Amino acid sequence: MLISFKVSNYKSLRDPQELSMLPSRRDSEFEALPVAAIYGANASGKSNLIEALCFKDNLAGAWTEPLHRPFRLDRRSRKHSTSYEIECELDGVRYEYRLSVSSVGIVNERLSSYPAHRKRILLDRTGDRITIGATMTNRSALQELSSETPSNTPTLSMAEMFRATEWQPFWQWLQRGLRSINLDHSYLSSFTTELPDAIERHPVLIELAKVADLGIADIRVVDLAALKDETLLEALTEFLETRRDQRHQALTKSLLSEVASEEEDLDQNRIRQQILSFRHLEFYHQSHGQPLAAGDQSRGTISFLLYMARILDALQDGASLVIDEFDTSLHPRIIPRIIELFQDKRTNPKNAQLIFSTHDATLLGTSFGEPILKRDEVWFVEKQEDGASELYPLTSFKPRKEHNLERHYLGGSYGGVPDIHPESLVEIVAAANKTE
C-alpha cells in the first residue's frame, strides 16, 4: 500500500509537494488511508499530480522525456532535475524509492527497505556511479551488471534482467500494485477485450450492472468460435468497429472479406481457429428478449463496467488505484458507493486504495447521515500567482464536525476553486457580441 508520494519540479509542481496516505484519525481501521480525493480548479495542477504519481509507467525500458518535465515559468527551474519519492509498505516491510532525472539522464537514484524497522540500502546511484547494497544477494555479479546500465535508464528498471531478488517486491508493486485508469482513448477497444475476462474473474460484475440502474438484466459472454454461421459475420463486423488497433483491424478485415466472398462454402474451422481469442458480449435489457451488442451500449454503461472491473481487481489484489477526473464518466450517485467499497473492511480486506482527482463537491457532503469522505481523505491543489501549484490537506484547516464542508469549499474557504464570477462571463460574451 502507498504510504506517501513526493514530487518536485514536475510541470506546475515546482516546489516539493507531498501526498501523505497516513491517517490522522486514531479510530481508523486502516494503516494507510483507503481513499484520497484531490480537489482544485481547472489548470490548478491536479492532473499533473496524478500524472507524476504514475511516473512508473516510464521506468520500464529506456528513459523518456516525460520523466524530466521541469517547471518552465522560470529559467532556474528549467535547468534543475525532476524528482520523485515514493514510499510503500509490502507484507510488513517498508520501501522507499527516490529518483531524480535531468535533461541528460539519471542524477540520483536510491532504493531502501526497512525489514524489522532497520534501514537497508539496496541500490544507491549518483550519475553513472552505481552501488549495489551490501546485503544484496549476488552483490558482486549485480555490481558488474549494473555498470552496463545506460546513463538515461533508471537502474531499478533492470530488476528483471539483473534478477535482483531484493528489488523484486517493490518493482512488482510499482508495476502491478500501483495502477491507473484512463478511459479517454479507445475505450471501446478496452471494453470488448477486457470485459469478458473481467466477468469471468468477477461474476458479481453482472449483479453490480443490474443494480446500477443501467437497464441491464444480464450480460453473457459468447466465444465467437461458437457462433452460428449466420451470426459470425455480424459479430466480426462489431469487433472490427470497436477495435482501433491496426494489427487487429487488418486481421479482422481479412476475415470479413473471406466470410463475405465464401459465404456459401465457408471454411468455418480455419476461420474459427484464427478468432478463438475473440469473444462476443451479449447484453439483455429485459429478462426475455433479443440481446444487444457491445456497440449498442452507452458510454456511461461502458465506463461503469470498465471502472468496476478494474476496481474489483484492485480490491481483490490490494492494489493502489489512481484515477484522474473520476467524476467525468460516472453518475454522481454511483461514485459515493464506489468510495464505500474502499472504506469498508468487509469489501477491502487487503487495504486497496483509491486516489482520484475530482470537481464533485457533493462528495464533501454526507450520505445517509455519514460523511462520504473523511476529513483526512480530502486534499486541495491551488495554483499560486507565479504559476506554481501547491498541494495541501483539508485537515490543515482543522474543520469542525459541524462544518458544512461542501458549502465552505464552494465558498472559497479552503481555496482550490476558480476565482471568477459567473456573471462576468455573461458580460464578456455580451460585450463581444455588441462589437461584432
Write a compact overview of the structure shown.
With 436 residues, this protein is of the alpha+beta class. It has helices spanning 46-53, 75-79, 139-146, 159-162, 168-177, 187-201, 204-211, 229-241, 246-261, 268-274, 299-317, 335-343, 405-410, 422-435; strands at residues 2-8, 17-20, 35-40, 82-90, 93-101, 106-114, 120-126, 129-132, 178-181, 218-223, 279-284, 320-323, 353-358, 366-367, 370-371, 378-383, 389-393.
Describe the fold and architecture.
It is a single chain. With 436 residues, the protein is α+β, with helices and mostly antiparallel strands. It has two domains: 2-181 and 329-410, Rossmann fold; 187-302, no CATH class. The chain is built from 14 helices and 17 strands. The protein has helices at 46-53, 75-79, 139-146, 159-162, 168-177, 187-201, 204-211, 229-241, 246-261, 268-274, 299-317, 335-343, 405-410, 422-435; strands at 2-8, 17-20, 35-40, 82-90, 93-101, 106-114, 120-126, 129-132, 178-181, 218-223, 279-284, 320-323, 353-358, 366-367, 370-371, 378-383, 389-393. A seven-stranded antiparallel sheet has the order 2-1-4-5-6-7-8. It has a six-stranded mixed sheet with strand order 9-12-13-3-16-17, sandwiched between helices. It has a two-stranded antiparallel sheet with strand order 10-11. A hairpin with an 8-residue loop joins strand 1 and strand 2 (17-20). Helix 6 packs across helix 11 (299-317) and helix 8 runs antiparallel to helix 9. It is globular, with a radius of gyration of 25 Å. The protein starts with a strand and ends with a helix. 36% of the residues are buried. It holds the Pfam family AAA_21. Residues 35-364 form the ATPase AAA-type core domain.
